[in-house]
Amino acid sequence: MASAILQLRDISLSFKGIKVLSDLSFDVARGEICALIGPNGAGKSSLLNIVTGVYQADAGEVVFDGRRFERITSLAAARRGIGRTFQHNALFDRLTVLDNVLAGLSRHSRTNLLEHAFGLPRERHEEREFRRRAEETIEILDLTAYRDAVVSTLPYGVQKHVDLARALVGRPALLLLDEPMAGMNHDEKRRMARRIADVNRSLGTTVVLIEHDIGVVMDLSDHVVVLDYGRKVGDGDPDEVRRNPDVIAAYLGAVHEGVA
Amino acid sequence: MSFFVETLVGGLLAGVMYSLVAIGFVLIYKASGVFNFAQGAMVLCAALTFVTLTENGLSFWLAFLVSLAIMIMIGIAVERLVLRPLVNQPQITLFMATLGLSFVIEGLSQIIMGASVHELDLGILDVPVEFGPIQLSQFDLVAAATAGLLVAVLSLLFSKTRIGISLRAIADDPQAALSVGIRLQVLMRIVWGVAGFVALVAGLLWGARQGVQFSLTFVVLKALPVLIIGGFTSIAGAIVGGLIVGAGDSLAEIYLGPLLGGSVSTWFAYVLAVVFLLARPAGLFGERAIERV
């Protein structure tokens, strides 16, 4: 296996006595697209929230980019290069698309308050550079038409793209996507899947994504991890996972009817 | 006619004083969604600190700088000790915390610096200045100019710089703001520090106008209708709201007062506020949240 960018070791999490994740371990290799699948409530989002410091695991450790941490804050995760989107759009609703994407570059900001307040040269230089990068990302994701629109006025599918743009513009080493295709129709899903594959290939971004559409997942991913009731029931390339009897019992068989 | 204009302009200038207090609320509300009830106590504390320092022989600017440092430190301490532990709590919890905080600040200020009434002389003569047929108070003009300058600077700082984008991002979704790497705590400290500065300026002008005493803390109650009219999220709204309240107050006092038996200005602003609440619940400049149903 190629070197792992993210290693999860015996992660456990519970809320008020209810086990959400139990002794979960797996690796995400650098440069791959890894899909997390499993029924609702399997603990997929909780796992992303642990990696980004929204939740603190009760036990276990996370190793990101060779550095081990037991506790990480959301801010530290972002600054170290973990980008994410949210299952329920958590965009800055009252800002324009451009400002949302600009905000996505915050982790790279190296200027301080005084430089901002007085518009000193270093700050102006950074501002120009950020604007260039934001415009570039907006163009790549075909959001140019919506550039100056306030996010809350946009259709849901477009908002999903804005969320991706905001996460992507910071060029994270690891990009966590929580149901990036939720609520999309077949064509929109295919388009989004193509974008994710493009990003992964052209920028070398490692992607971990949660998705329910098994067809899309199997086409897109290099690596699939299956969760059920907070335990790992499958871990391997799409073909292996498809053949795994535990996975079929826990998930694939049951859900396939629903997906069609 | 010139009497009407004089009343109107006098009212507008007085209104700017209300705006000055309202801005302190807007700053914190915009960034964190907290209605900081302690802003009035901060105004009192700032004025009391400044007066105590000058009475002990410090020069104006030295006292101003020391008071400023103290106010900024109080702002930062409030953020660190009171609001940060309450992050992600419902807004009513935060509001109650600032309500309690206002009593703590008032109490401590008076324990340390005494509760007696102080006179505050900023060296601005309160003499009438003639503009053709109308006379205006020089003090009011200076106060209005100060407030105007403050608003201009704050508006630029919070709208034209990236600090502004970050602050609005935090107000919309603090978790998402953290996840893109916005330093939420640093920005909160900045906002509370600036709120401390605004409290100092308001405390000096109000203190010079009506004496430095406990009742300064009630300027909050004058700021409330201003906020309702202008909107809680807009610095420009605080100014326009202040002007409307100021003008409304003094015109009502002169023209309605005799009919209703006087002291109209104590309640007229609230009547205006209620009218605005019915017509424009988000205020003139407030951001209405657009929600999909």
Short summary of the structure?
Chain A is of the alpha/beta class and 260 residues long. In chain A, 41% of the residues lie in helices and 24% in strands. The mean pLDDT of chain B is 86.
Tell me the overall shape of chain A: globular
- Cα-based radius of gyration of chain A, to the nearest Å: 19 Å
Q: Would you give the CATH topology of the largest domain in chain A?
A: Rossmann fold
CATH fourth-tier homologous superfamily of the largest domain in chain A: P-loop containing nucleotide triphosphate hydrolases
Q: How would you state the average pLDDT of chain A, rounded?
A: 87
Number of helices of chain B: 11
Strand content of chain B: under 5%
CATH class of the largest domain in chain A: Alpha Beta
How far is it from the N-terminal to the C-terminal residue of chain A, by CA? 34 Å
Descriptive tags:
heterodimer; A: 260 residues; alpha/beta; Rossmann fold; 4-stranded antiparallel sheet; globular; disordered C terminus
Task: Please describe what this structure looks like.
The complex is a heterodimer of chains A (260) and B (293). Chain A has helices spanning 44-51, 74-80, 97-103, 113-118, 121-140, 156-168, 186-203, 214-220, 238-243, 245-259; strands at 4-15, 18-29, 33-37, 59-64, 67-69, 82-84, 174-178, 206-210, 223-228, 231-236. Chain A has 260 residues and is of the alpha/beta class. Chain B is mainly alpha-helical. Chain B has a two-stranded antiparallel ribbon with strand order 1-2. In chain B, strand 1 and strand 2 form a beta hairpin. Chain A binds chain B through residues 52, 54, 73-75, 77-79, 83-84, 86, 90-95, 99-100, 102-109, 113, 116-117, 119, 127, 130, 150, 152-153, 166-167, 170, and chain B through 157, 161-163, 165-166, 168-169, 171-173, 175-184, 186, 190, 287, 289-290, 292.
